[in-house]
Amino acid sequence: MFKATFISNIKRWWWIPALNAALMLLIYISLVSASSGLGYKYYQVVFNSFMAALCALMLFSFLHTEKSVGLYFSLPSKRGSVFLANLLFGFLSILFCSLLFTAAYIMFDGSYYDLIFDFFCTFTYAMSIFALVTFVSMFTGRLLAAGIFSLVMYVLPIYISGVIDELADEIYGFAGYSAFKVYELYKLEHPLRSLGFTAVLLLLAYIAYRLRPAEAAGELVTFRWAKTLFIQGVALCVGLLISGTFMYSGTNYIMLTITGLIIAAAAMMLMQRSFRIKGYPLQAGIFIVIVALLYALIALDITGYENRVPAAEDVASVTVDDGIHYRQIAEPRPTATLETTEDIEAAVKAHSRIASEKPQGDYSNNLFLHYELKNGKTLDRYYHAPEEYMTGIANTVPFRRAYFMLDEEWTYVQLSAYKHTTTMATLTAEEAAALRAAVEHDVLSCTPEELYKYYGGSRNIMYIRPGAYKYDNAVIVNESMPTTWPLVKELMQKYELWP
Prior knowledge:
- By secondary structure, this protein is of the alpha+beta class.
- The chain has helices at residues 2-13, 15-33, 40-59, 66-74, 79-109, 115-137, 143-171, 191-211, 224-243, 250-272, 280-299, 341-357, 391-394, 397-403, 429-445, 448-455, 484-494; strands spanning 315-321, 336-338, 366-373, 378-384, 413-417, 425-426, 461-466, 475-478.
- The chain is extended and about 95 Å long.
């Protein structure tokens, strides 16, 4: 049965790899003729992946009609032989196209640089697409649904990561997390990851194939246990997308509930192919319970995780960045590391006040806290808060020194007026040392309220750039600094930079 099925696949589906190879060769020849072979690898990945998906859909399309399912499953052979024959055809098709494209690249370009690695990357990536579509095809009895569900499953990690990102940023205050990290999963440069992903999915697909009921052809979801999961998953994902996802406001959860109940009803209509749906009250009740749990866990924070503030005695150090970037033109912003008991207590106190009072509003001040705990763990938090919440942190010497770059050597200092950064004057070593001493005196002897005035807001602002290659960072001084400003004004007049 294995041999017969494999030969049948060649006779029926030979045109898929052949068409893919022909199209890719035509595109490559046109790119070479136009002396623009840079996009070839991109086209190779796209076409190979599309061919892999189409192969998987066609090879297992017999599962989506009752007649073909009955025919295949009535034959005196094991189910596994058909699955393995289809898998071998898909594997050889992807391998054939990948080798052909590699040979064409050598023939037309004459380059061998990283060729084996590129071949392995594109081949394993296409195989992972084949495995994904094969896996999804086991859970639906409709060909069109298999294609749509495969696309949804492909982008689902990005959506889930976006929801996690919002939870991390807006609710739990994590700093440094980005949804874009999930794109690491889609990079070609990780062939071993693609290979492992392929192996796991094909194993799960084989298990599902063996357990799949023959009468499931034509069903939107083939396994009974997966139907509830499908309904609730679609209702929750679409409901979150429409309702604005997670917020503190209970209004959003009401919107989520209404939207999700409507989407659940629509999903059940598709599954049952009728406007008169059975079992809706049960599914609606399950969804309401899920939303209630989300509201309790997130909006009400019954776990207390959102308001968690570590005890000062458990903290080894705190890295602080308050995000006040009047004086920073671009990244990276300097940060301060607090290590003394007094400084750590100041950071913990500020964090505790923000977590308990939850100041609302569109504040330009952001507080980033990175805790290094004595037990080896870390804790990151990110908040928006007005200046008075950060007074204790602004009192610490490391914070003040970091935010005016006083821990760096001012060996090559340039001075420029606000909005006139293209015209700069390079100070002498003596002038730079005098200016640094003046800034240090003002910064370390002022009150927190005065310190925040130093950041900006005054009409006259001057940029001081310490370091020949540090054009992204600048110390801003203004007329509220009693020692620094007269010296800056004198230097600006000397170099004719007064705005």
